[in-house]
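Session log. Operator J.P. requested a structure for one protein chain; no other inputs attached. Running the standard single-chain path with token output.
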Amino acid sequence: MLLACTPMEWRRGGEVASMESDVYQQCRNRATLAGMRFMPFPSSYYYPIVGRDRFGRPFSLRQSWSHSDQLMFEHTTLMQCMLGQGFDLMPIAPASQPTAGPEEPGLEPGRKGP
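Structure written below.
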């Protein structure tokens, strides 16, 4: 089984936390607020760092944080919150996974379209 392609869900005992559950939403909100504190300005807004080189010529640098830094921080914070609530991220049981639809005509047996 390839875990990278396996659908996952948050489980605590027999309880499953969907994206609409109160626990998940509280952790999501906490992660979003933490991400805003981590990077309080939109990703398109940067404070340039202005200075002069040894010859007195001005130069500017931009901060290297990108929007993906904030998203990864939020994702990590969400995972830590859910783990702290006693949930584990587990693969969805095969019986509850959606089944694949019929194969497309004209393809080799067992192959799906692009």
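Operator note: Residues 18 and 52 are 53 Å apart (CA to CA).
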